[in-house]
From TrEMBL:
This is EXPERA domain-containing protein. It comes from Monosiga brevicollis (Choanoflagellate). It is found in: Endomembrane system. Keywords: Membrane, Repeat, Transmembrane, Transmembrane helix. Residues 1-133 are annotated as: Disordered. The lineage of its organism: Eukaryota, Choanoflagellata, Craspedida, Salpingoecidae, Monosiga. It comes from the Eukaryota. It is a multi-pass membrane protein. Belongs to the TM6SF family.
Length: 529
């Protein structure tokens, strides 16, 4: 009996090695092939007893169910990480699930895990566990994967992402409060006449202020905000909000309600001491200041798609403002009094162009169509823009001094175009060079159609032009009725209804069409098949 017994034990050990591989200890039981214990004699079972499974099955099940490490699922996002632990689950055939004790013979005890495996739990390799389950005719639902050491840099980055960002409202409020520092600063400068008497010193003080204020804002606001994703454009908008408060004091000085900026009007930008300069300063101190706060909030919220059209609107407004103001001051009747302080407007010329490139690179918001987009609406827009082109061209002829009958009739409605300052002549040339080409493009897209890309480009241009129309027409309308305008060039009560109707309709047309482009699908074209 010894020889058959040895052959039976040897066959069982070879079966275990084929199933478990070279490292059976990872499944939580001892490698009996490495022990010198005497072979166990298997007692033959009666013929009526149920057939027993080989011992390899019992050891596979013991190793899988006892020592399989839990499965960790990691779902990382920029806001949080979740760790879900789930133990290994296996699905057993019916005969194994009903009577697991039948896996062992009557004379053999279930093998105990080794001491090393009991103390230290090792994860199961997915390949080994799957192979063992396949040999045992079981179907694993989830197999535990070996936990890998996380990347320390990735862990640190995820922890940083989990930290809440500073509230954008606090950032906006801090920049708003910093902008009001312009008022005490101007009173402090006004108290030192030796500094403001020389135009060169005045320009130097302005340059130092434009450089020092962003540094002050950064070290007093942004540097002390934990985990705040800083954007350098916020400093520029905070600086422009500061200069908006300077423009507010300039407007009050022009209106005669204050004298704090009288020295700047005398030795700085003298062309601002006019009706158009008053209107431009009022618009910058109110509308532009509000736009700066909105844009700072948008940049701090890090959602560029939601604020894209606000950025475009401001770019159009400030660019048209600078074109009209600087060009008008250059050709005005007081152009001989231009001083180096006029070059302080250089940031307003360069920065909008740089920021416009940034805006064009930002993602576009989702475009959705509504009932507003109908062919009849496009037809009416085409008619209105054709009429707008005619009105803008006649106004240009009137501002240029044409003797055309329509130009003379237009000067009867808007006598402000004949004012001696050069702002209104530039206003007429802006209409010829920018407004009329824009109207032509719009009419062409409405009649001939535009694809998706062309519609998106037209939308950006329309928002830019809407901002430009708002600023230039606001300044034109306010200066036409302001007290500094010559009485002969001022709008009278008889001219007011036609004057306000024409200009308000032109502004509304550009804004309504810009909204139409934002919420419309690509134009099909009224003349297309």
């Amino acid at each position: 009996m010894d020889a058959p017994t040895d052959l039976t034990a040897s066959a069982m050990r070879r079966s275990r090695r084929r199933t478990l591989g070279k490292k059976p200890a990872r499944l939580g039981f001892e490698d009996e092939t490495s022990q010198e214990a005497e072979p166990t004699v298997a007692t033959p079972q009666p013929a009526s007893a149920a057939p027993s499974r080989p011992n390899s099955v019992s050891q596979v099940l013991a190793g899988i169910t006892k020592n399989a490490s839990p499965l960790r699922y990691r779902s990382r996002s920029t806001s949080r990480r979740q760790s879900l632990q789930s133990p290994l689950r296996v699905s057993l055939p019916g005969n194994l699930a009903a009577a697991p004790q039948q896996l062992f013979s009557d004379d053999e005890e279930e093998p105990e895990p080794s001491a090393g495996a009991a103390d230290v739990e090792e994860p199961v390799s997915p390949q080994l566990a799957g192979h063992a389950a396949e040999e045992a005719h079981v179907t694993p639902v989830r197999v535990a994967a070996a936990d890998q050491a996380a990347d320390p840099q990735q862990e640190e980055a995820d922890e940083e992402d989990e930290e809440p960002l500073m509230d954008p409202l606090l950032v906006t409020a801090g920049c708003a409060m910093a902008s009001f520092l312009a008022i005490p600063f101007l009173y402090a400068v006004d108290a030192h006449p030796e500094v403001i008497s020389d135009p060169v010193y005045m320009a130097v003080v302005g340059c130092v202020t434009l450089t020092a204020f962003p540094i002050l804002v950064y070290y007093s606001i942004f540097r002390h905000m934990p985990r705040f994703q800083f954007d350098v454009f916020m400093l520029f908008f905070a600086l422009f909000a500061f200069t908006s408060m300077v423009d507010l004091m300039l407007a009050l000085t022009i209106d005669g309600r204050s004298t704090v900026m009288k020295w700047y009007l005398d030795a700085g930008e003298s062309y601002l001491n006019s009706s158009y300069g008053f209107a431009a300063n009022i618009f910058d101190a109110t509308a532009h200041w509000l736009l700066y706060m909105v844009m700072i909030y948008g940049l701090s919220s890090h959602n560029p798609a939601s604020w894209r059209y606000v950025y475009l609107y401001w770019c159009g407004s400030v660019m048209f403002s600078l074109i009209n103001l600087l060009a008008g001051g250059t050709i005005s009747h007081i152009s001989h009094a231009l001083q180096p302080s006029s070059f302080l407007n250089t940031p307003y010329v360069l920065f909008p162009l740089i920021f416009l490139k940034r805006v064009f690179d930002t993602p576009r918001p989702a475009r959705r169509a509504d009932a507003f987009c109908r062919p009849s609406v496009d037809f009416h827009f085409a008619i209105f823009f054709v009429l707008a082109m005619i009105a803008i061209y006649v106004r240009f002829a009137a501002s240029a001094g044409s003797e055309w009958s329509l130009a003379r009739a237009w000067r009867e409605i808007e006598p402000t175009l004949t004012d001696e300052t050069g702002f209104f002549r530039v206003f007429g040339y802006l209409g010829l060079c920018y407004h009329i080409p824009y109207c032509l493009v719009v009419v062409a897209c409405l009649l001939l159609g535009a694809n998706r890309v062309q519609t998106e480009v037209l939308t950006d241009i329309s928002v830019l032009m809407a901002g430009g129309f708002m600023e230039t027409y606001f300044c034109f309308c306010v200066s036409a009725v302001y007290k500094l305008t010559n009485e002969a060039s001022r709008i009278s009560d008889e001219q007011a209804p036609a004057f306000w109707t024409i200009n308000v309709l032109l502004v509304l047309l550009t804004h309504v069409f810009a909204a139409h482009c934002i919420y419309s699908l690509p134009f099909k074209g009224l003349l297309s098949d």
